[in-house]
């Protein structure tokens, strides 16, 4: 078999995605590989396909037990022999797995890094041919990354113990330069084929909303997406419990997760979510690592997270299957305070010196500020995120809440000039509160204490509200006309660029939203550009959606019988494609995206029967528009 036959037979796909082939070919040539690709881009295929074609075994090092189980289940469902070895198994189970592995039963074995130095495993590794070692979540090897795992350093030692050096392939979704360099250097990749794909997740819709009542917003949102799976992230356990109770009253199938729950309850709740018994999860950021659930249709943030890195990672758990999904952040100014409080009470690593701790704190503050700007920007949200991750020259996306709002632009150069004058006059000794208070001529006690009333700029923007002035200051920060000191005082300073405002060579434009900024209901979306992944309801007509529901129910039933999560049987994307193609026989079914020979043998007839029962065997159009256009 060649790589294309494997892709079709086991995974049910007709063609490789951008970049997959490059890495697969390299591995098959015996070259090391580094794949830096966002979540959902399809990293697994990049090592699973070569694993099946290489002569020996592929070891996949993965940090997360739940993820290993998930991947192995998915491979087994596809008809591929794979196993995992980690601390969730008993010693007897591990020995048995190793005996089978030594006999060559498994082509792919997932192991936790800790396992690599145990005598039993080393003995096994000495007996068999190991063609490739794949390092998943490879950023865990970097001390600069957010999730450094000392146990990852054992991988290097392990590889050295092998008689023949295997191909080493590494994959991650984290892409700062420093982390990339670390992966290459620490893992000792030799002349690796490196692939960095863009970080854009086209199927995700991004929005920032400022509802007056967040609970009501969440409740309405969840109720208007019945049957869909989603995650709602909150900053605190208290919020999780409150929202959980609130949603339960509405009889929403909801569960929850945070570090305050017992480990058994956490495990059970996580499983209920993964198996779609409770498809709606309310959780703190303790939830999600290692969750590979592909049919998460929305991720709501009840509070603003602490950094854009965190946000993109958490929001990115939506839509791993490539179907249109939504990421909505519910913002309130209070969130900034909550986050600062959380930073203040963050546990401090005693191994760090005072200077290092200070540097960490400054970095955290900076990240929080960037996150806050995301919530305030009136420009394209996707562009904002991608710029932050280093992608340049991007056009507005047409698929975020800012791209879909209408704004009126005002020339506010004069106000910007007053703000700059004020900061210069105050000699950069104050933060946003004092500066804004001075400009509007407020006379609260604190300001009197500082004696700001004697300055020429006192009251120079007295016709504006203090909140309005702050918004402009924030906008000026985003445009780098101003900057703040990187400590918790955040003292305002003017930058070199501010001169252009002062000498009249630059104008400062202010966007005002046409609609009222406070909304409790979701604004209707305007027609989207064609590049955007269409939502299920834009693709399937009402009969098609009805069939989708029936197939989804069938999938859930089969999943219960088989004790696997529903999305491992077929992804949402596959079910939608089934509704579009409405196949009547095996040949038709095999054309559906994600249906391979093995999956067909397992489930094909049952799904065919359901489709036949629904259409009565008559050809029927269950989607809008032309077929080509439907996907
Ligand atoms: P990652 O590990 O990069 O987050 P996965 O490997 O889990 O992504 O893949 C995400 C989804 O994309 C899975 O549902 C996978 O089956 C699907 N996928 C991967 N490669 C292809 C392909 N060539 N064609 C269609 N779907 C694919
Ligand atoms: Zn946009």
Question: How is the secondary structure organized here?
Answer:
Layout: H1 3-11, H2 20-29, E1 33-36, H3 43-53, E2 57-61, H4 65-77, E3 82-85, H5 91-102, E4 108-111, H6 119-127, E5 130-135, H7 154-161, E6 167-172, H8 177-187, E7 193-196, E8 204-209, H9 214-223, E9 229-233, H10 237-249, E10 254-257, H11 263-274, E11 280-283, E12 296-301, H12 308-315, E13 325-330, H13 334-344, H14 354-376, H15 381-388, E14 407-411, H16 413-425, H17 432-440, H18 445-450, H19 466-478, E15 482-484, E16 492-494, H20 498-502, E17 509-513, H21 536-539, H22 542-562, H23 566-569, H24 572-581, H25 586-589, H26 597-615, H27 627-630
Parallel strand pairs: 1-6, 1-7, 2-4, 2-5, 3-4, 5-6, 8-13, 9-11, 9-12, 10-11, 12-13
Antiparallel strand pairs: 14-17, 15-16
The protein binds adenosine-5'-diphosphate and zinc ion.
